[in-house]
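Predict the assembly for these two chains.
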Amino acid sequence: MRHAVILLLLTLSPALWAEALLVEKQRFEMDNFQTFNGQQIRKIQVGWESYGKMNKDKSNVILITHYFSGNSHAAGRYHPDDAAPGYWDAIIGPGKAIDTNEYYVLSVDTLANLSAHDPKVITTGPASTNPDTGKPYGLDFPVVTIRDFVNVQKALLDSLGIDKLHAVIGPSMGSLQALEWASAYPERVERLVSVIGAGRMDAWTVAALEHWAAPIRLDPNWQQGRYYGGQLPLAGLTASLALITQDALHPDFVNGANPDHHPLEQAPLTDIRQSHQVVNWLWGLAASRARMVDANHLLYLVRASQLYLAGMDKTLEQGLRGVRARVLLLPAVEDQILMPYLTEELQQALLKQQKSVTHKNIPGPMGHLNGLRNIDQVGETIRTFLQQGNPL
Amino acid sequence: MRHAVILLLLTLSPALWAEALLVEKQRFEMDNFQTFNGQQIRKIQVGWESYGKMNKDKSNVILITHYFSGNSHAAGRYHPDDAAPGYWDAIIGPGKAIDTNEYYVLSVDTLANLSAHDPKVITTGPASTNPDTGKPYGLDFPVVTIRDFVNVQKALLDSLGIDKLHAVIGPSMGSLQALEWASAYPERVERLVSVIGAGRMDAWTVAALEHWAAPIRLDPNWQQGRYYGGQLPLAGLTASLALITQDALHPDFVNGANPDHHPLEQAPLTDIRQSHQVVNWLWGLAASRARMVDANHLLYLVRASQLYLAGMDKTLEQGLRGVRARVLLLPAVEDQILMPYLTEELQQALLKQQKSVTHKNIPGPMGHLNGLRNIDQVGETIRTFLQQGNPL
């Protein structure tokens, strides 16, 4: 079936082929955004993109919420010669599981987006200019939460006249936003797909996320977040991204990617300043990503994630009370970041309140990253789920 | 049965009771130690202690090899009013699984022992004075390996006239030393117990261990290891110990220890510089340990662990070829550091060469730390194993 789609695409004229897959980043701006913790941000701008076409009654809209180190580029290419398409291109597009012939799919860059220095990302965060001072906010930027990311998305949807979502779907930190949509604005969300997700951050996961922030704060160039215009805290940022990458992976994948590994390598055996090849490989991956990333944004995304509790209420049960959406949970086997027990806890909490919820495990050797790289393994499950009747 | 032992102890006279449990740190010194990588250390001293009495033909000796952040204090107390006994006191002592009425049990501080500043630890490492310069070695100390730890222990045993070990038993990094004994000096080791162990460091684990070292190198006080006499790299060291502690634990334990955790705590919600209570708890645990720890020693122990391959040969199979000991493997369920697949790999490699090997899982909610805190769960397994016939 997938082969058939590829063949079909190959036989289309180049113009049509390009039209089907090319996407464009757009900009959404707001004045005077109030954060969940009660602070004001005078000006906000975020990037967004869309795939497919909105129907007349605006009833075919699917929102994709992105993961920690992702952005709104969920599918397609900006240019025909882009090396890679958006991260979920395997399931978003014409004829794919999230079929852009049927649905109008859109996605929005979060506040404090990790890749603040990627020219294709538009975001507002500690690296942005504070209009009150003319200088970057740094740590004066308010703490923002998953609810704030949702509220920016909601403002964009309002501006487009969209008041119902056929579905909201996201992986990892995107799953938190998706669940927050269904919890905070239940009358607007018909279906929810939480991929490699959680209902709340337990003590273990809050502590685990803190290790991602620690190396940045140790870097002498970090300077309490006031490094703009000076030396960047790249060493700390790289160590942080190396840890995030490892946490997102699994032994099978790392060992497979390093088939020549030998514990007794000569360089680390003879010199404490040198490292094993697998360390150089992992740090190299991290260093190549660090140039696009803002270190303070990483701290703010860690914090937004740590503060997550569905519905932002007193308990998980209270936060989920309003949920009306059908729910599909897609945890990944051997996920080291949002361990499958977190999805299990969410499922039990939903079942206890007689919500409509099902789940399926995403298989594969990549741990947490199965939710991105192996998403095609559950494509048909998502397709079928999206065709189920509207519960609202 | 354990109650019977306790009752028995309580009925002994105070003098006997003290004699049974009090231990003393001793010192062993060597000149001109040659490391595995071919370098020389002019003077070495390490601490050691023992429990029980050696028999006449010196055939009742059991060596305990310690874990990454441990030392030779495996059992007993230095003073009757010590807050806690040695780490494996639950299984080492009169009438216990490793019965000091029957065996002479000894344990030795490793080179570059983590707790270099604990007055009860005697070790030689980067914090020691280099006799050539009169100053601490820092990074001029040679890279040392698990084989070097074993060779120091072997020199001590030689000095005591001990040429056979009834058993060598160790958890975690201690399991690597125990296996190295059986691989490098097979004619000396009758039985081997590898607790929460591994046969070699795969690429995944080498990379995972590197994250323990990274925060220290980022601390501006670290100064490429030349911090002696100046500001100590305590912030980096604390972050490192916090990560090690979390890696050694499991969600069940951390969540159980933080029953009042709530993701939406006020302090981290309103101030990016503040943290969740669970983070303060974990960092507090780490900070309280940091005062005894030397940061460079931590880097050297990470490296010694990363370089591990049983027998230090070309392959695991070649390294294990000589093993004659009976082998008992005791992995912990849900161990996040030395994941159970590493024990499985070792078991398969031993079976392939028709070695005598069995295994049993240590249950409990503490992940890797089950190998320390829940060791009594496999006490009877160890006791029975030690009674099996000598295979040499």
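Chain A touches chain B through 61 residues (CB under 8 Å). The radius of gyration of chain A is 21 Å.
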